[in-house]
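notes to self, project folder thing:

trying the whole complex as one job this time. last attempt i did each chain seperately and stitching them together was a nightmare. two parts in total, labels are on each line so i dont mix them up again. if this works i'll redo the older ones the same way
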Amino acid sequence: MADSISDFYTLPLDDWIEVAVKDWLVPNFRPVFQALQWPIDQVLSGLEDFLLWLPYPVFVVVVPLIAWRAAGSRVAIFALAAVVFLDLLGIWRETMITLAMIVTAVTFCTIVGVPLGILAARSDRFASVIRPVLDIMQTIPPFVYLVPIVMLFGVGIVPGVIATIIFALPPIIRLTNLGIRQVQGELVEAGLAFGATRRQLLFEIQIPLALRTIMAGLNQTLMLSLSMVVIAALIGAGGLGLTVFTGLGRLDIGKASLGGIGIVLLAILLDRVTQALGEGGRADAGGKRSFKKLLSKGVSKTDRDDVS
Amino acid sequence: MNAGIASHQKVCVEHLFKVFGPDPDETIRRVQAGQAKDRIYADTHSVAAVADVSFTVDQGEIFVVMGLSGSGKSTLIRCLNRLIDPTRGRILLDGQDVVAMDAGALRELRAHKLSMVFQHFALFPHKTVGENVEFGLKVRGVPPGERRDKARRALEQVGLEAYADVPPDNLSGGMQQRVGLARGLAVDPDIMLMDEPFSALDPLIRRDMQDELLALQAQLHMTILFITHDLHEALRIGDRIAIMKDGRFVQTGTPEEIVADPADDYVAAFTRDVDRGRVFRMGRLSHEAPTVTPDDDPATARRRCDEHGVAGLHVVDTDGYPLGILVRAELASAEDDALRDLMQPDYPVARADQELIELYGACAQGLPIAVLDDTGRLQGTVDPLRVFALLAGEPGEGETSRRAEASAPLAAREE
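result (full assembly):
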C-alpha cells in the first residue's frame, strides 16, 4: 500500500531548477551578471580604499562630530566610545571593510529601490506584481540564493554585497511606495488642480512629503544589510562577518564575540544617526518651526484681536 | 448683484454624468428613465454621483451649488477641472470642451484659467506660505522674481503679506484658508472653483471670509463656482444657487426665487428656517401706488385711499418726485385745506434693492413705504403688512411682486 503520492512519483523540481540555472542561466547570462558586478565593484573598492586610507584620528574627530550634528550629544559620546573601543579590540580594519560593504549595499538599494517604490505607488498593477516578489525576497532564507549567486558571480566580497542587496532591498521599496501613497489626497489634487505635471507633482509634493517614511525604509534596509554581513562571509565577503565566521569554524568563542560586538556597535551607531537624519529633516525643521510657532503665535494672537 | 455687467456664458455644462461602478451605460439609461438612486444601485452596483446636470455660469457670476454630503457636489466641481473624468456630457469653458482635452491642453487650462480652493485648505506643509501661494506660478514656469511679486500681491489681497515666510501649519484655520484663497488668486484665474472653502471654519470666521470673498469679487469680477452644504452661505454669497440632491439639480435660481418658491419639499425643508428678511428685497413687494398731486382736493385723496384700501398715499409732483404723505385718518375731517398743508413731509422710504430686514423700523409706522428709484422718483410703494406677510411665507405674494416688477416706474398720473 502506498501512503503518499511520492511513492509513485516525485516531481523532479530540484533537477529542473538545476538544469535551468546551470545549463541555461549560467552559460548564457554569466557575462551579463559579470557586467552587473562592475559598478558595485567600483563603488565598493573605492569606498573601502578610502576608509582604510583615512588615518584613524580622523575618525575619532569626524564620527562623533557627525553623530553630534545629526543626533545630539548623547549619540556623539556613544560614537566616540565606539570608535575608540573598536580600535582597542583590534577589529578596526574589519569594521571599515564591513562599513564599506554596507554603505555600498544601501547605496544600490536606494538607487534601485526608490524608483521601484515610486513606480509601485503610481501603478496599482506594478504594485501587485512586485508585492509577491518582495514577499519572497523577505521570506526566502538567504542561504538558498547564495548558491546561484556563487554560480553567477563567483565568490568574494562583491557577490557578498550583491547577496546583501537582495536581502536588504524590500523595505525601501515598500516604504517608498507606502510613503507616497500616504500623501493626503487633497494635497495631490491641489497640485494637479494648479496644473502640475506628474513629474512636478512627484518632486514638489509627493517625495518631500513621503521623505520621512522613505527614510524609515532606508533605516530598515541598513539594519537588514548589517544582519547579512555574517551570511555574506560564507561566500567570501570579508570584514566583521569573516571574523565571526572564522570564530565559528574554529569554535573560537572569543573571536566570534569580537566580530559580534563590532557588528552591534556599528549597527547601533548607524541606526541612531540615520534615524535622527530621517526625523532630522523634520526634527530640524520642527526645531525651526516651534521657534517660529512661538513667534507667530504671538503675532496671530494680536491679529485675531484686531479682527474681533 | 452683477445684473449690470454684460453677461456672457463662461461655463456651460450639458447633461453631465459621472458614474462610479461597473456599469456606467446602464446606469445612465436608468437615470434618464428617472429611476431612484437606491434602485439603480441595487440593480447595477453603480452610483451616478452626477446625474444629468446642466447649467451655465455667466462671466462675473457667483454660482453656488448647495447640497448635503453625498449629493455629488464635490464630484461635480472636480469634473470641471477633470480631477475626476466625467462619464458623459460636455463641459464648455469659454466654448472649449474640457472633456475632449488631452493631458497637455488640460494642464494648460488648469495652470492658466482655473484655480481651486479646497475644504481642508490643502496647503503644502513642507512649503512656506509664500511658496504655497507661488505654487501655481512655479509649475507654470514663471521665473522666481516675478512669481514672488505676484504671490506677495495675492497675499496682500487677503491681508497676509506679513506671513510669507511662515509654514502654513502655524496659522489659524481662517488664515490658512486665506492662504488657500491667495494661492488661487495668484494665478489670475478666470474661473475659481471653491469646494466648501469655509465649511471647516468657525461660524464667525466663516462670516468674515464670506464678506472678504464678496469684497474681492466686487473688485475682481471672477467667475466663481462655489460648493457648500450651508444654505445660508449659499443665499449670502450666491448670485444664483443650484440645490443638488442625489446627483441631480433639484432647483436652480436666484436666492429670492429659491426661498419664495421652493421646487419641492426637499428644498422647502432647507428654506424653512431661512431669515427671509435677509433674502428678500423691497423691489419684490413694491407695486404701483395711488398718488395725488398737490393740486388735488382732500375728497379725491380720501376716495383714492378708500378705493385702494390703503392707510395713506403719497403726494407727488408732476416730475414724479414725492413731496409728502397723506394719512387717511387725518383726511377724514379735512374739507377745503390744501393737500400741501395736510401732508406730512416725513415718510418712510426705501430702495428696491434693500433687504427687508433693514426696513423693519420703517414698517413700524404703519404707513406705506415709498420705494424710490435711483433719481429719487417714486417707483412704487410697499404696504408694511405685505412685508410681514412675506416674512411669514404666505403664499401668493409672489404673484403681486412679479406684476410689480413688470410695471414701469410710476409717474404721477393725471386723472
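what i see at first glance: The domain at 13-53+91-276 of chain A is CATH 1.10.3720.10 (MetI-like fold).
need to look closer tmrw
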